[in-house]
Amino acid sequence: MGKKSLFQPTADDNETGNLQSQDEGKSSISSDASSGASSDNKNGVAACRTSANGKDSVSGTAPNIHESPATRIMTQPGGTSGDGGPDPMTRMIAAGVGCAAFLILILLVASAMNAGRYYVKESRGAVEIWKGDFSPEGRDRIMVLQGTRWDRDKKDYYDKNEVLDFASCFYLQKALGLVDVSDIRDYDRIQYYLEKAIAVNRDAGNSDAVSVLKTVAKYMQEAAILDTGESDTAPVVAKKITEAKHALAALLAKGRHRDQQK
User: Fold this and answer.
1) Tens of pLDDT along 201-215?
2) pLDDT exceeding 90 applies to what percent of the chain?
């Protein structure tokens, strides 16, 4: 058949080579495992050192274990809480400002309402009329009507026309009572009540009544000049007195009728 080559490997040589290859593979695996274990040991040692120093492994700073949750919320950047909304102090200030604005609005509304109200008080045979000012409870006395009583419906407060109509009737009655006398008339006192009635009706916006009262006041001035007791002026005085009485009586009846309709 032929001669065997001296360099041809035998079965024993092949087995020996395989064993050597296996030994080299095991040695390589053992080396990798040893290297991995060494790396893990180094990382563990570093972590232990970091923990021992009490510092954060990422930031390098020691965490504040005494810091409260509220403090951490307040120190969020931009004045916001952890959930992205405004911090508690901002919400508290906003709520306080809102409450203050609401209270101021209530005071303004109450003051405006009180400024349009009138109050009546009866004291010692007189009727006092008070007007509310621009404050929740403030009021000023504007007139005192002596020798009368409040014969209208009793209420906590009244509107402007109610009290001014009452005052107008009061002054008209006083003037009419002084005009309708048979003896000497007190013209100065008559003029006083007529001027008061004119002022009240002007304030109430009764322009017709103001015009009539001015005419009556003019008649009274002329009668005061002519009322000297002489016979030639007596008819003129009597005529002016009669016209004044009729005018005052008509205004008084109109005022009472207006009160009954309310």
Assistant:
1) 999 999 999 999 999
2) 42
Q: Do the beta carbons of residue 136 and residue 110 sit within 8 Å?
A: yes
Least confident of 45-59, 62-76, 248-262: 45-59
On whether the pTM is more than 0.70, the answer is: no
Alpha-carbon distances, residue 79 vs 64, 76, 87, 96 (angstroms): 21, 6, 6, 18
**Dihedral angle, C-alpha 12, 16, 19, 23, nearest 10 °:** 170
Measured N-to-C along each axis, helices 187-204 and 207-226 cross at an angle, to the nearest 10 degrees, of 170
CATH number of the domain to which 195 belongs: 1.20.120
| pLDDT at position 95 | 87
Answer whether residue 245 is part of any domain.
yes
- Mean per-residue pLDDT for 26-54? 42
Domain final residue, candidates 158, 191, 218: 158
Q: How many C-beta atoms surround the C-beta of residue 113 within 10 A?
A: 12
